[in-house]
Each structure stands twice: as C-alpha cells, then as structure tokens.
Specification:
Blueprint: E1 8-12, E2 17-22, H1 27-36, E3 43-46, H2 53-64, E4 68-72, E5 75-79, H3 90-95, H4 102-110, E6 112-116, H5 129-137, E7 141-145, E8 148-152, E9 160-162, H6 168-178, E10 184-188, H7 194-206, E11 209-211, E12 217-221, E13 230-231, H8 237-250, E14 252-257, H9 265-274, E15 277-281, E16 284-289, E17 298-300, H10 312-320, E18 325-329, H11 339-345, E19 349-354, E20 357-361, E21 370-372, H12 376-388, E22 392-396, H13 399-402, H14 408-414, E23 419-421
Parallel strand pairs: 2-14, 3-13, 9-10, 17-18, 21-22
Antiparallel strand pairs: 1-22, 1-23, 3-5, 4-5, 6-8, 7-8, 10-12, 11-12, 14-16, 15-16, 18-20, 19-20
The chain binds uridine-diphosphate-N-acetylglucosamine.
Length: 422
C-alpha cells in the first residue's frame, strides 16, 4: 500500500459494472494464520497474502516481537525462531483488534504474554471477556492493570470450555493455544466460520490434532511440536460479497473467479430473491442485474452459517434504492449502523429504531455528497452508495477501507466504475 496519504475516493456515480475479477485472499483467515505461525520455530510461508493495511500492521507486530518477516511478491515468509518479546506493541494493538489472536500463540510459545486492550473498528463494545474467561478455564493466570493485560500459562492445563457466544476470535485464540497444550481441550459453542476452519486446516498441516472444525464442538489434542509449512488461506467471502452487492446496486454483469460460493450461500440466496440472475459453474460465479430489484422486507445478521454481519452495511445500501420498506436487524454487534448518518447525507431515508434495528424506506436515487468512512465495512458500503449516486461523491478516511480491501478502487475501476483516489 504505497499511497496511504491519499485518503479519499472520488466517485462519479452511474456506471454499470461489467467484467471478470479474481477475489483476494481473506483478511480474516490470513491474520490468525500469521499469528499461528509463531507456534513453530520453523519457517512458515503464507501464500498470496492480501495487500491490505491490517496485514502490514500484523507484519509490524510480528517484527517487533522478534520474528523475521519478509514479503516475496505476495507471499509472507515468517521465521519466528528468535522471538524476543512477549508484549504486543501498544499502538498497533489499538489500531487492530486482530492483535488479540496473538495471545494464544505467544502464550503457547513463551508461557507469558501481555497486550493492551485491543482496538479495531468502532462497531460496538467488542469486549474480550470471552477470550479471558476461556484462558482462565485452562489455568492461565490473568492480571489486568490499567490498559494492559498480563497472562501467565505456567500452570495451564487442557480442559473443557463453553463459550457464552460463538466468538470467532476467542475460538481462534483457544485453538492456537491448545494445539501444543498437553492433553485434550474441548471447545463447546465454538464459532463455525470458514476462517476458523481455515486456521484449523493450517494448524493441522503444521501437525496439530484438531477435530470438529466447522462444527460447534472443536476437540484439540495437544502435540509437542508443530512444524513449518506453506499454506494458502481461503479467498475473501466479504470482498466477494461486496463485489456482488456492488453489481446488484449498479446493474451490469460480473464474473468472479476463485471464490468459494458455498461460503456465501445466504447472500446468493438473498440477491437471487431480489431479482439478480446468478449462475455458478466450476467455482465461477456470474451475477447480472438488468431490472429493478424486489425488496427482501427483512434481513437479520447472525453467526455462520447465518447472514454475515460484515455484509450488513452493503445490504443496507442496496435496500436504500429498492422501492419498499426493509427492516434490518443487526444481531452480532451493537453500534453497527454508523453509516446511517452518512447515507442520509446522500438522500437515504433510514430510521434508527434502536442500536440493533433500522427501517429503510427506499428512494429512487441517492445523490452525491461528501461522506466519511467510520469503519471498514461501512466505508466500503459508502463507496457502493457513491457508485450509484448521481454526481461526484467524495468518500473520506479511506485508510479504514484499506484495512481489508486490496485496492478497492482498482477492483471497481476494472469493472468500469468511475472512481479515483485523491
Ligand atoms: C471477527 C471478524 C469480524 C466479524 C466478526 C463476526 C476477524 C479479524 N474479525 O471478529 O470481521 O465481524 O468475527 O463474524 O476475524 N464478544 C464478547 N466478548 C468477547 C468476544 C466477543 O462479548 O470476548 C462479542 C462481540 O462484542 C460481538 C460478538 O461477541 O458482539 C461476536 O464477536 P466475535 O465473533 O468475537 O468477533 P471478532 O472475532 O472480534
């Protein structure tokens, strides 16, 4: 990412989208896999890492811990044989919530770890109590002091953990920690997201003994040692979804290669119901939208395999231009409607019923305005709004979008959108 200082997009809306695009590697799979690379003293090669800010920040964190990290083209080569620190950098922790995943791997490797309360998108309270309680269940000593938390795993023991919510991050943390913890650890109410499964596949390739990934019960038998591997994480279902919704919003016809369609079943079902024509063949997905769209009436997010919260704001934008009322229920995070006030500046009619529910009254056209990204996915959704609005929309703060999208403007430009970074 060489143009971080150009922090705005200018979009001249109205173009339909046409073309073929290959979807990037998943951010939410790559980051925990980078963290898990600390579980071995051998070299790990993570292939086709996405060129996004969160990966760059994770590289900085790993280097500060003492790992030697190189990027060769897009392959990330991590040698953590000389790890020298157990404290995750304060500033980086604050910019990226994924820093929390490092706890499991640093603790497993060094028996102690410390980090600042993690940051990330401003989409809700995002506490870390589930992570902390799970570690405590395994005998890890936890001390909170001011803004820092200190962990010690000298007397940790394998055991049973029941998560009160199927937290993706907590599941990933415990899976990493338990991979080399002597004995049998069971996680009940585990997250089933494809990114959790991918992390487990990576760990299994390293030699971990993990059973049940993708179900609500994951069992891990700790092994003495994990070995270095080469691994290519899965493609990004949220980026794929963003591109599909962009085409549903703008009209046109796109073809996405390299996407795992099964991981976006709910979205595909919804877009079909709304009137998009979707064909899937040999892992290639075609979406065309020629006519006006029908409302889905209500949409609720949920834990996988339910509709992903990370695609909620894109569907919110889509609902803004459908001639009907749509109720959107956000069931995973509170405060995930930061985008609403920005969309209102573009002529959208949305009522916030409460922190979890909005009522969208579709309008004929959105109109261009100057708007600001306030979180990663909401920011990308404002870009989608700009693609269909009449006139020149300016989206500010696009470094938040760069956290997870590999040059979103280039992807959209290649499909015929009129968008540039300024
Ligand atoms: C991950 C994803 C994020 C996605 C989210 C839900 C990454 C890097 N990020 O985030 O893109 O939106 O899953 O699919 O993979 N919670 C607690 N206490 C905790 C942990 C979580 O109350 O200790 C709550 C959260 O506030 C939230 C819910 O549990 O309401 C789910 O959060 P979680 O699954 O942990 O999300 P992340 O792992 O942070």
């Amino acid at each position: 990412m060489s143009y971080k200082k150009k922090d705005k997009f200018i979009i001249n809306g109205g173009n339909k989208l046409y073309g073929t695009i290959t979807v990037q590697t998943s951010k939410n799979a790559t980051l925990p896999i980078m963290s898990a690379s600390l579980l071995t003293t051998d070299i790990v090669k993570i292939k086709s890492c996405p060129d996004i800010l969160d990966v760059q920040n994770m590289i900085k964190i790993l280097k500060k811990l003492g790992a030697n990290v190189k990027l060769e083209n897009c392959d990330c080569i991590i040698d953590s044989s000389k790890l020298k620190d157990i404290c995750v950098d304060y500033k980086l922790c604050k910019t990226m919530r994924s820093s929390i995943f490092l706890l499991g791997s640093i603790l497993a490797r060094c028996k102690s770890a410390s980090l600042a309360m993690p940051g990330g998108c401003n989409i809700g309270k995002r506490p870390i109590d589930i992570h902390i309680n799970a570690f405590k269940r395994l005998g890890v000593k936890v001390v909170e002091l001011n803004d820092f938390i200190f962990f010690n795993a000298d007397s940790a023991k394998a055991g049973h953990i029941r998560l009160k919510i199927p937290s993706v991050g907590a599941t990933e943390n415990i899976v990493q920690f338990a991979s080399t913890l002597k004995g049998k650890t069971e996680i009940f109410n585990a997250a089933r997201e494809p990114e959790v499964v991918d992390l487990c596949n990576f760990l299994k390739k390293m030699g971990a003994k993990i059973y049940g990934a993708g179900t609500s019960k994951i069992t891990i038998f700790g092994v003495d040692r994990l070995k270095g591997v080469e691994y290519k994480p899965i493609t990004d279902r949220i980026v794929m979804g963003t591109l599909l919704v962009a085409t549903a919003i703008c009209g046109g016809s796109i073809q996405i290669c390299g996407a795992n369609v099964n991981q976006n079943k709910k979205l595909i079902e919804i877009l079909s119901r709304m009137g998009c024509q979707i064909n899937i063949k040999n892992g290639i997905i075609n979406l065309s939208r020629d006519y006006s769209l029908k409302s889905i009436k209500t949409l609720s997010t949920g834990y996988y395999p339910k509709f992903p919260t990370d695609l909620q704001s894109m569907l919110l934008v889509l609902s803004c231009i459908v001639n009907d009322i749509t109720i959107i229920n956000e069931k995973v995070f509170e405060n995930r409607f930061l985008i609403v006030n920005e969309l209102k500046k573009m002529g959208a009619k949305i009522d916030i019923i409460n922190n979890h529910t909005v009522r969208v009254n579709g309008v004929k056209n959105l109109v261009a305005n100057k708007v600001k990204a306030l979180d990663l996915r909401g920011g990308a959704s404002l870009v989608l709004a700009g693609l269909v609005a009449k006139g020149n929309t300016v989206v500010e703060n696009v470094h938040l979008i760069d956290r997870g999208y590999c040059h979103l403007e280039d992807m959209l430009k290649s499909l015929g959108a009129d968008i540039k970074r300024i």
